[in-house]
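Lecture 7 notes: from sequence to structure.
We start with the chain below.
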Amino acid sequence: MGFLDNLENSLKSLESRDERDTGREHERREAEGNAARAAAPHAERLRNSPFTAALLEHATRMGFAKRVKVHIVWLDTTLRLEARDKRLDLRPTPDGVVGVFTANGAELRTTPIDLDGDPEKLAREWLD
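Predicted structure tokens for the same chain:
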């Protein structure tokens, strides 16, 4: 009987741990949902702004001049530009849009992006 009692106690312990983890998972998903809702206006503006269209145009033109293919990808609400070993992610946050500059797989810096600013300047900053 000792083995069966031990097994039953172990199962109860696992069940109670799963219930606690489920509560934490629910809280985490709720926090992520709140952050996504707070960032939604910035994501919509990033997707539909003239700044984004001009940035894509300048980046592809500059890449062509340097003989570099610029890959453009939307990952959910994030706009990613890739050229060789350089990457620029424009990520909407509750506070606005943030640009994440990456080279050779290492994050170099993060900077706030002004969607009313100069997209050509941002493209030069990324590709130079």
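Points to note: The chain has a mean pLDDT of 88. The helical segments are 2-48, 50-65, 119-127.
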